Amino acid sequence: MPDDMPDDVAVPKTAELQPRHRIIYANTLVARFNPLGVEDRVSFMYHRRLTTRHGKLWDDTHFGIGLTPSFAPSIIRLGGTAELVPLAILHLKASYYFISYFGSQEFKAHAFDSPNDDFSWETIKERSEAKQGLSTYGGQAELSALLQFKFGPIAVRNELTFFHNLIKLPGKNDVFYDLRHDVMAPAQGWLLGNDSDILYINQKIRLTAGVRATYFHMFYPDSVYEPGDVKSNSNDHARVGPLIAYTFKDRPAKRFMRPTLYLLAQWWVKHRYRTGQEINQGIPLLVLGFSFTGELFKKD
């Protein structure tokens, strides 16, 4: 369920001109605490090189399209992604998923009438015991832009992602607790997440270390509020903390490359329930992940 790990913060390989046609795969398995979650993300992508120009800005420019599902114990997303990398510093992506909530009551979607309703851990637990979680489904779109620069061993990255939900909820419910992002999300509407990284990259020992700051904001339509509700950004959240990634030595085979172990610890700076109101602010969000990638096909 977590959506907190970067797609790729592994120590990069030496830049080289990629084949004109490639089919690659990647897998990332992540486990999260505060809130709890586990998710496996898989991708199978076709890449078409855009240019034969050499240089750090040009060696991996491409257009890509493929399947990018994710699987969690109670949430499955099935769909695909199109991406455009016109320069090495800019990655653009558009994805669409069919999403299904099922299984354990605690990890299902929980529908509410208003963004101002209580969605604390204690409330979700009580609702789960009363079997009020929803087995439901819907559509979810993502639009993202990643901008990144590298100055010697220092890399600076910023990824902005817009999400759009079309989730089926019963009756007049307009919002739901989205465990994947730990937010009260609009069932029909937009939210955004922003991740900013400052990283030190040591290619000799295959280590990346730095700091990540994360912010989430919901764009609630006026229609989701109940009469008399105060319209505010109280459901926005922010967190910051260290990120470390170690890439094990590559195997010679191109079909298994860059096995990388990640650890992310972020302390909550803004949250309705995790900055001391219900959960001690000293308890961080923790994410442990393992990823690898490979090349299934290539042709010039």
Q: How would you briefly describe this protein structure?
A:
By secondary structure, the chain is mostly beta strands.
Please outline the helices and strands:
Blueprint: E1 21-33, E2 37-49, E3 62-67, E4 70-71, E5 75-87, E6 90-101, E7 110-112, H1 121-129, E8 136-151, E9 154-167, E10 175-178, E11 183-186, E12 188-202, E13 207-219, E14 237-247, E15 257-270, E16 285-299
Antiparallel strand pairs: 1-2, 1-16, 2-3, 2-4, 3-5, 4-5, 5-6, 6-8, 7-10, 8-9, 9-12, 10-11, 12-13, 13-14, 14-15, 15-16
How would you describe this structure to a colleague?
With 300 residues, the protein is mostly beta strands. It has one domain: Porin. The protein contains one helix and 16 strands. It has one helix at residues 121-129; strands at 21-33, 37-49, 62-67, 70-71, 75-87, 90-101, 110-112, 136-151, 154-167, 175-178, 183-186, 188-202, 207-219, 237-247, 257-270, 285-299. Strands 1, 2, 3, 4, 5, 6, 8, 9, 12, 13, 14, 15 and 16 form a 13-stranded antiparallel sheet that branches. Strands 7-10-11 form a three-stranded antiparallel sheet, with no helix packed on it. The chain starts with 20 loop residues before the first strand and ends with a strand.
